Amino acid sequence: MFEVIGKSLKTGVVTTSYPLTPAEVSRHTRGKPEIDWANWKDARPAARVCPTGAIEFTDEERKRIATLDLGKCIFCGLCADADPAIHMSNQCELATRERAGLKLSAKYQLTSDGMHERLLENPAAGSAGGQSLEAVGQQLQARIRSMLGRSLHIRQVDAGSCNGCEVEIVALNSPIYDIERFGIHFVASPRHADMLLVTGPVTLNMELALRKTYEAMPAPRLVVAVGACGCSGGIFGLNYATVGGVDSVVPVDVYIPGCPPNPHALLHGILLAVNRWRGT
Ligand code: SF4
């Protein structure tokens, strides 16, 4: 026992002080694709290679609306390989309270051969239902503060994931991230949970189970969709075996994009939901 204590003292504290200090993410980590919108010459090559349809465009009368949907992006980097105006950043804190907030759209004037002549409208995160994202966020913050106080119990449901997201979620309980320092605990029963953390595209086989788990939770309750699959269906989209993202089955309060989102991204999303994100 003394040997173990001695070793612990020698190792010291390994727990990250995130979010008080910035995320310690390797520069090799793949995060959000950054598009140089002003100098983007053509959305078509990137849209062609994107495996999940995260880059899309619609053309109308020599004008084009090009959209990057972070809720579908799996950070594969194929768009960056195909287009010099795109590079992969290591930015991982991308969670939002609205699905529309993950979509970045820009409008272009087109040349006769379909290239971008000039940028007409800068990309802006979308807003839902005519309400600004800020207003939606403030309402949600007030609601969460009043209903949860300072502790949170999470029930995790795998609705059909590849288990990539689960590997990252398990890391939250490691000494490095130590999610329990926030008073946040994972629980085995939805009856004890305030938050439902859902991974994977919702498969047909799990649709009823997810709905029942949600209904078994005491109200008020929060739902967080994890990963590109949870946000939108991801690489699977809609097919014979899935019904799409989590919000096609239960209402979602926070979306955490990524494939998979790393523990920093997960912490960011969970803390965003419980209103502890750097005082927001
Ligand atoms: S990183 Fe991959 S999934 Fe994301 S926009 Fe680029 S090509 Fe699409």
Provide a descriptive summary of the structure in words:
With 280 residues, the protein is of the alpha/beta class. It folds into two domains: 33-125, no CATH class; 133-273, 3-Layer(aba) Sandwich (Rossmann fold), CATH 3.40.50.12280. The chain has eight helices and eleven strands. The strands form three sheets. A five-stranded parallel β-sheet has the order 8-7-9-10-11, with helices on both faces. It has a four-stranded antiparallel β-sheet with strand order 2-3-5-6. A two-stranded antiparallel sheet has the order 1-4. Strand 9, helix 6 (204-216) and strand 10 form a beta-alpha-beta unit. The chain starts with a helix and ends in a 7-residue tail after the last helix. The structure holds iron/sulfur cluster. Residues 33, 49-52, 54-55, 73-79 line the site of iron/sulfur cluster.
As residue ranges, the low-confidence spans are: 126-134
Tell me the number of structural domains: 2
For this structure, the CATH topology of the largest domain is Rossmann fold
Supply the helix-strand structural class. Answer: alpha/beta
How much strand content do the residues show? Answer: 15-25%
Bound molecules: iron/sulfur cluster
State Rg.
20 Å
Corresponding CATH architecture of the largest domain: 3-Layer(aba) Sandwich
Order of helices and strands: HEHEEHEEEHEHEEHEHEH
Average per-residue pLDDT, rounded, comes to 88
Helix content: 25-40%
Shape: globular
Oligomer kind: single chain
Distance between the termini: 43 Å
CATH class of the largest domain: Alpha Beta
- Extended strand count: 11
The total count of helices amounts to 8
Strand ordering within the main sheet:
8-7-9-10-11
Largest sheet: 5 strands, parallel
